[in-house]
Amino acid sequence: MTGDERGTTERVLTLLGLLQQRQVWTGPELAARLGVTPRTVRRDVERLRTLGYPVHACQGVGGGYRLGPGQDLPPLLLDDEEAIATAVALLVGAGGAITGAGDAALRALTKLDRVLPARLRNEVRALTESVESFGGGRTPVEPEALMTLARACRDEVEAGFDYPSAKQPRRRRVEPYRLVASDRRWYLLAYDLDRDGWRSFRVDRMTDVVARTWRFRARPAPDAATYVQEGVASRVYPHQARFLVHASADTVRAQIPASAAVVRGRGSERCEVLSGAADLDPVLMHVLLLGHAFEVLDPPELATRCHVLAKRLRTAGGL
């Protein structure tokens, strides 16, 4: 293979990856991402079609290129049995909470979902329901719910689901933005249309999850992982505390689960720790037991509490 042929092949594969990431791309957008002319994009699209990838061109306002589901799996990708086995493994990995692999499995599954023939989906669902797992990891979620939300995030369509409230489950209507995997659970970051604001939702608490056909224009969004982590570690609790710890952020992150606190670097030798709880005494004790010097930043009354507990400890030690 010559250098020009190799460059064309790499560019066509990059084009395929872009088409799998988003529902519609305009020709100029693809040309800008690939560093080529729109005419070259058109030629590369024809190359993908020749290989069996169903790339559709839409005319008019909002038109562009999109990758449709195939009648048959594209050549040189997967045969039916391999596609079913791969989809089942990815669904179990994502929904069954394999720590560290679930988010990657879900990303791969959304790509496979683009080209998986409709005739295979019932077989995938049936096989998935026959697989169980045991042991630790994330709280299990329904793979179908996870997949529905992943599709809705990818295609920018509204989603709906029942979610627990103080009295009874309420129907929530959202613009889904990102799925976020913590060390324990799956969360959805979405714009809540009824409450007019960004919210994070635990996927394992959702029921009757559906994606609607109503598309939306993506809003400016907060960083998904940061927003969800801060909510899980702090905002959901009635009391929040901030500490300045005299150790590097990497050192402290290795000591505290991401779901328990947010750790922000303050130079190379110090970091800020943000955490929340119903009672801040356990948080204070946890920071103490990290084994590093620290200072209370907020709230002021927690510093007073340090003196009270220190006196109690001295008394217990006979000092």
UniProtKB/TrEMBL annotation:
Specify the HTH deoR-type domain's residue ranges. 8-63
Instruction: Say which species the protein is native to.
Output: Nocardia xishanensis
Q: Which Pfam families does this UniProt record tie to the protein?
A: HTH_11, WYL
| Lineage, opening ranks | Bacteria, Bacillati, Actinomycetota, Actinomycetes, Mycobacteriales
Report the domain of life of the source organism: Bacteria
Q: What is this protein called?
A: Helix-turn-helix transcriptional regulator
Print the keywords alphabetically. DNA-binding, Transcription, Transcription regulation
